Protein backbone atom coordinates (compact mmCIF):
# COMPACT_ATOMS: atom_id res chain seq x y z
CA UNK A 1 0.00 0.00 0.00
CA UNK A 2 1.26 3.46 -0.80
CA UNK A 3 1.75 5.97 1.99
CA UNK A 4 -0.59 9.00 2.32
CA UNK A 5 2.29 11.25 1.19
CA UNK A 6 2.84 9.12 -1.91
CA UNK A 7 -0.92 9.14 -2.61
CA UNK A 8 -0.96 12.95 -2.45
CA UNK A 9 1.94 13.06 -4.93
CA UNK A 10 -0.21 11.14 -7.45
CA UNK A 11 -2.88 13.85 -7.52
CA UNK A 12 -3.18 15.41 -10.96
CA UNK A 13 -4.40 15.04 -14.51
CA UNK A 14 -2.93 12.32 -16.73
CA UNK A 15 -3.12 11.54 -20.45
CA UNK A 16 -3.17 7.91 -21.52
CA UNK A 17 -0.05 6.88 -23.41
CA UNK A 18 -1.35 4.64 -26.24
CA UNK A 19 2.17 3.48 -27.13
CA UNK A 20 2.51 1.89 -23.69
CA UNK A 21 -1.12 0.96 -22.95
CA UNK A 22 -3.40 -1.82 -24.17
CA UNK A 23 -7.19 -1.98 -24.53
CA UNK A 24 -7.60 -5.73 -24.79
CA UNK A 25 -10.40 -8.27 -24.77
CA UNK A 26 -10.82 -12.03 -24.66
CA UNK A 27 -13.69 -14.08 -26.14
CA UNK A 28 -14.19 -17.83 -26.09
CA UNK A 29 -14.29 -19.30 -29.60
CA UNK A 30 -16.08 -22.54 -30.51
CA UNK A 31 -16.43 -23.27 -26.78
CA UNK A 32 -12.84 -24.60 -26.70
CA UNK A 33 -10.32 -21.77 -26.90
CA UNK A 34 -9.84 -18.09 -26.21
CA UNK A 35 -9.30 -15.46 -28.89
CA UNK A 36 -7.51 -12.32 -27.76
CA UNK A 37 -7.61 -8.95 -29.40
CA UNK A 38 -7.16 -5.27 -28.76
CA UNK A 39 -8.12 -1.84 -29.96
CA UNK A 40 -4.94 -0.08 -31.05
CA UNK A 41 -6.20 3.52 -31.38
CA UNK A 42 -7.59 5.30 -28.33
CA UNK A 43 -7.13 8.32 -26.14
CA UNK A 44 -8.23 9.25 -22.69
CA UNK A 45 -7.59 11.25 -19.61
CA UNK A 46 -7.57 10.51 -15.90
CA UNK A 47 -7.90 12.85 -12.98
CA UNK A 48 -6.41 11.24 -9.88
CA UNK A 49 -7.12 12.53 -6.38
CA UNK A 50 -4.61 10.71 -4.21
CA UNK A 51 -6.10 11.98 -0.96
CA UNK A 52 -9.72 11.16 -1.83
CA UNK A 53 -9.96 8.52 -4.60
CA UNK A 54 -13.75 9.03 -4.79
CA UNK A 55 -13.00 12.40 -6.42
CA UNK A 56 -10.98 10.69 -9.18
CA UNK A 57 -12.39 10.27 -12.68
CA UNK A 58 -11.53 9.10 -16.16
CA UNK A 59 -12.72 9.01 -19.73
CA UNK A 60 -11.70 6.95 -22.72
CA UNK A 61 -12.50 7.07 -26.44
CA UNK A 62 -11.62 4.09 -28.63
CA UNK A 63 -11.53 4.16 -32.44
CA UNK A 64 -13.59 1.06 -33.12
CA UNK A 65 -12.02 0.29 -36.51
CA UNK A 66 -8.66 -0.19 -34.79
CA UNK A 67 -9.77 -3.65 -33.61
CA UNK A 68 -6.99 -6.20 -34.08
CA UNK A 69 -7.24 -9.93 -33.36
CA UNK A 70 -4.35 -10.86 -35.61
CA UNK A 71 -6.63 -12.28 -38.33
CA UNK A 72 -7.73 -9.78 -40.99
CA UNK A 73 -10.85 -11.72 -42.07
CA UNK A 74 -12.07 -11.96 -38.45
CA UNK A 75 -11.34 -8.26 -37.87
CA UNK A 76 -13.40 -7.33 -40.95
CA UNK A 77 -16.28 -9.47 -39.66
CA UNK A 78 -16.07 -7.75 -36.26
CA UNK A 79 -16.23 -4.34 -38.00
CA UNK A 80 -19.44 -5.35 -39.84
CA UNK A 81 -23.05 -4.97 -38.79
CA UNK A 82 -22.93 -8.54 -37.37
CA UNK A 83 -20.86 -7.15 -34.49
CA UNK A 84 -19.82 -3.52 -34.04
CA UNK A 85 -21.31 -1.89 -37.19
CA UNK A 86 -18.31 0.41 -37.25
CA UNK A 87 -19.32 2.49 -40.27
CA UNK A 88 -22.30 3.74 -38.22
CA UNK A 89 -20.69 3.60 -34.76
CA UNK A 90 -17.01 4.57 -35.15
CA UNK A 91 -16.28 5.09 -31.44
CA UNK A 92 -16.56 3.20 -28.18
CA UNK A 93 -16.48 5.37 -25.05
CA UNK A 94 -16.16 4.93 -21.32
CA UNK A 95 -16.79 7.66 -18.74
CA UNK A 96 -16.35 6.93 -15.05
CA UNK A 97 -19.17 7.69 -12.64
CA UNK A 98 -17.65 6.46 -9.34
CA UNK A 99 -14.28 5.41 -7.92
CA UNK A 100 -13.96 3.42 -4.72
CA UNK A 101 -10.83 2.18 -2.97
CA UNK A 102 -11.45 -1.42 -1.93
CA UNK A 103 -8.13 -1.98 -0.17
CA UNK A 104 -4.44 -1.37 -0.68
CA UNK A 105 -3.86 -0.53 -4.32
CA UNK A 106 -7.18 -2.02 -5.47
CA UNK A 107 -10.08 0.08 -6.67
CA UNK A 108 -13.53 -0.40 -8.13
CA UNK A 109 -14.31 2.01 -10.97
CA UNK A 110 -17.89 2.21 -12.21
CA UNK A 111 -18.76 4.00 -15.40
CA UNK A 112 -20.82 4.21 -18.55
CA UNK A 113 -19.65 2.11 -21.50
CA UNK A 114 -21.15 3.13 -24.85
CA UNK A 115 -21.04 0.71 -27.78
CA UNK A 116 -23.26 1.07 -30.87
CA UNK A 117 -25.07 4.04 -29.29
CA UNK A 118 -26.10 1.91 -26.29
CA UNK A 119 -24.84 2.99 -22.88
CA UNK A 120 -24.70 0.54 -19.98
CA UNK A 121 -22.97 0.73 -16.60
CA UNK A 122 -19.92 -1.47 -16.04
CA UNK A 123 -17.64 -1.93 -13.05
CA UNK A 124 -13.91 -2.42 -13.50
CA UNK A 125 -11.60 -4.00 -10.95
CA UNK A 126 -8.56 -1.71 -11.08
CA UNK A 127 -5.11 -2.25 -9.63
CA UNK A 128 -2.65 0.64 -9.25
CA UNK A 129 0.66 -0.89 -10.37
CA UNK A 130 2.99 1.97 -9.51
CA UNK A 131 4.48 5.25 -10.61
CA UNK A 132 7.81 6.21 -12.13
CA UNK A 133 9.77 9.11 -13.56
CA UNK A 134 10.67 7.98 -17.08
CA UNK A 135 13.92 8.88 -18.94
CA UNK A 136 12.14 11.82 -20.65
CA UNK A 137 11.22 13.33 -17.29
CA UNK A 138 7.55 12.31 -17.44
CA UNK A 139 5.75 11.27 -14.28
CA UNK A 140 3.87 8.06 -15.14
CA UNK A 141 1.38 5.87 -13.37
CA UNK A 142 0.34 2.35 -14.24
CA UNK A 143 -3.06 0.74 -13.85
CA UNK A 144 -4.48 -2.65 -14.75
CA UNK A 145 -8.23 -3.16 -15.10
CA UNK A 146 -10.51 -6.08 -15.83
CA UNK A 147 -14.22 -6.78 -16.09
CA UNK A 148 -16.51 -9.23 -17.83
CA UNK A 149 -19.41 -7.97 -19.93
CA UNK A 150 -22.25 -9.57 -21.87
CA UNK A 151 -21.99 -8.41 -25.48
CA UNK A 152 -25.77 -8.95 -25.88
CA UNK A 153 -26.35 -5.96 -23.59
CA UNK A 154 -24.99 -3.75 -26.38
CA UNK A 155 -26.95 -5.48 -29.15
CA UNK A 156 -24.02 -7.58 -30.36
CA UNK A 157 -25.86 -10.86 -30.79
CA UNK A 158 -24.50 -12.53 -33.95
CA UNK A 159 -23.56 -16.16 -33.46
CA UNK A 160 -23.50 -19.55 -35.14
CA UNK A 161 -24.58 -22.83 -33.50
CA UNK A 162 -22.08 -25.67 -33.31
CA UNK A 163 -23.01 -29.22 -34.33
CA UNK A 164 -21.63 -30.47 -31.01
CA UNK A 165 -23.69 -27.96 -29.02
CA UNK A 166 -22.94 -24.45 -27.91
CA UNK A 167 -22.11 -21.49 -30.09
CA UNK A 168 -19.18 -20.13 -32.07
CA UNK A 169 -18.63 -16.92 -30.02
CA UNK A 170 -19.16 -16.55 -26.27
CA UNK A 171 -21.57 -13.95 -24.97
CA UNK A 172 -19.23 -13.14 -22.08
CA UNK A 173 -16.26 -10.98 -23.07
CA UNK A 174 -13.39 -10.20 -20.69
CA UNK A 175 -12.02 -6.67 -20.99
CA UNK A 176 -8.34 -6.65 -20.06
CA UNK A 177 -6.78 -3.19 -19.87
CA UNK A 178 -3.23 -2.02 -19.13
CA UNK A 179 -2.73 1.72 -18.77
CA UNK A 180 0.36 3.87 -18.69
CA UNK A 181 -0.56 7.53 -18.21
CA UNK A 182 1.59 10.66 -18.17
CA UNK A 183 0.94 13.42 -15.65
CA UNK A 184 0.40 16.95 -16.93
CA UNK A 185 3.18 19.28 -15.85
CA UNK A 186 2.53 22.65 -14.26
CA UNK A 187 3.04 25.54 -16.61
TrEMBL record:
Residues 13-182 form the Lipid/polyisoprenoid-binding YceI-like domain. It holds the Pfam family YceI. PANTHER family: PROTEIN YCEI. Belongs to the UPF0312 family. This is Polyisoprenoid-binding protein YceI.
Amino acid sequence: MTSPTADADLTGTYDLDPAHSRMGFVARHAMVTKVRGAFTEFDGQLHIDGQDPAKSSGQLTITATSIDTGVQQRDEHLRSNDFFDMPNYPEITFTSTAVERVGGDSYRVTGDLTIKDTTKPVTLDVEYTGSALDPMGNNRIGLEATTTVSRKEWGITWNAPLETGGVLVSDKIVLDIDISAIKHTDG
